[in-house]
Amino acid sequence: MNTLSLSWRYLWARPLASALNLLLLSLALAAITLVLLVRTQLDRAFERDVAGIDAVVGAKGSPLQLILSGVFHIDVPPGNIPLSEAQALAQDARVAQLIPLSLGDSYEGFRIVGTTRDYPAHYDAALAQGQWWQAPMEAVLGAQVARNTGLTAGGLFAGVHGLGGGGEVHGEEPYLVSGVLAPCGCVLDRLVLTSSESVWRVHEGEPEDEAERRALEAGREITLALIRYRSPLAAVTFTRYVNEATGLQAAAPALEITRLLRLVGVGTDVLRGFAAVLLLSAGLSVFIALWSALRERRADLALLRLLGAPPRRLAALLLCEALWLALLATALGLAAGHGLTALLGWLLEQDRSLPISGTVWLAQELWVPVLALTVAALAAALPVLAAYRSEAAALLNER
């Protein structure tokens, strides 16, 4: 019987102790994998959705709320702002582009966003079917929206008042699906895009005469505006100008996301610390198990020595036992980490939030088996050394 198969049999000769060691090590590796996957995917999502947006302008309130609602669409906006004030900002010499966003309605939990075609063009979005909206009350669905609702080009749907669903249905003004976006891996996947005129029409209704039409147009509002600067120097003065000289609020996505990630980092640090404690506990448990196994198998080791097994063979048996445990824990830990990430992604998808996938594999995960093997090798170091130095006579005399 070779060393690998014999060490495997020795490992499961004590099933309860081996199962406990495997559980501790697997939990630690699963926690590390979960933190790695979630943090990396969140960083990528934030970086992808914020790219090219220098500032977000909206109503006075929390700057972070403004960013979360205007860029990631995972929060409620602080309010609306006059369209005329946004148009005035668009004429500012520091502004290269202003993209208006009008929020307020949703469909099956997915937000309906009134905007211009500059918004999907900003993310280089492409159509999978149909065409872009050509007139009011036509809409283009994000890939996730189309997948979850089953709507295709040519279908009809009615928006619901409010961003969370459960509000009044605007059945008198249905939308026609003119197209469906190809998956882009960005925030557009979970949005329904239409023209700003569509949102105004749903909430204003048809004017009875020209005077009413003009009054409605004069009082029109949008929810947010995404700003791209003409030059990096505009970042020095633009947000301060908006916050101090107007009734609006401007927030820099890069700054607010840095603050948010710092808060998220506290949670990930706690989980990393928990994983480190589990790793330490698992390493100590493996050491105790191997040291106990060394004392319990004195007769077996003495017999192997009498049959001509060299000291390195005895040492290899204990080392392989620890490495078997590390390999099993690596497989279970990676599987559990990806499974937990997939579960978290499913929960976030039900909440129409940021996309997290358990099918993503990262190059950094190669450190997981390295870490497991290192912990197992360190835990086995003293028992392996003791086995290597043992003599048959001494082993028999200890009985």
**Based on DSSP secondary structure assignment, what is the total number of beta strands?**
13
Pairing-aware structural class of the strands and helices?
A: alpha+beta
Uncertain runs with pLDDT below 50, 5 residues or more?
Answer: none
Euclidean distance between termini CA atoms: 25 Å
Structural shape: elongated
> How many H/I helices?
14
Helical content class: 55-70%
Major beta sheet summary = 11 strands, mixed
Beta-strand portion reads 15-25%
**What's the mean pLDDT score?**
84
Give the C-alpha Rg. Answer: 31 Å
**Helix-strand topology string:** HHEHEHEEHEEHEEEEHHEEHEHHHHH
Structure described in brief:
The chain has 399 residues and is of the alpha+beta class.
Give a description of the structure.
With 399 residues, the protein is an alpha+beta fold. Helix content is 57%, strand content 15%. It is built from 14 helices and 13 strands. It has helices at residues 3-11, 15-50, 63-72, 83-90, 118-122, 143-149, 196-204, 210-218, 234-245, 253-296, 298-306, 311-350, 367-389, 392-397; strands at 55-58, 81-82, 95-107, 110-115, 127-130, 138-141, 156-157, 160-161, 175-181, 191-195, 221-222, 224-229, 249-251. The strands form two sheets. Strands 1, 3, 4, 5, 6, 7, 8, 9, 10, 12 and 13 form an eleven-stranded mixed sheet that branches. It has a two-stranded antiparallel ribbon with strand order 2-11. Helix 10 (253-296) packs parallel to helix 13 (367-389). The chain is elongated. 37% of the residues are buried. The mean pLDDT is 84.
